[in-house]
Design a protein that fits this description.
This protein has 30 residues and is mainly alpha-helical. The chain has one helix spanning 5-29. It is built from 1 helix and no strands. It starts with a helix and ends with a helix.
């Protein structure tokens, strides 16, 4: 099973961005 590092990198980047936006929203709400 070989997955290009680019795909993993993009997926990780999107995941981290989503997490950051959620944290930011939580901080603004609470």
């Amino acid at each position: 099973m070989t997955v290009p590092l680019a795909i993993i990198k993009v997926f990780y980047l999107l995941k981290s961005v989503k997490h950051d936006s959620v944290e930011y929203t939580n901080n603004k709400v609470f």
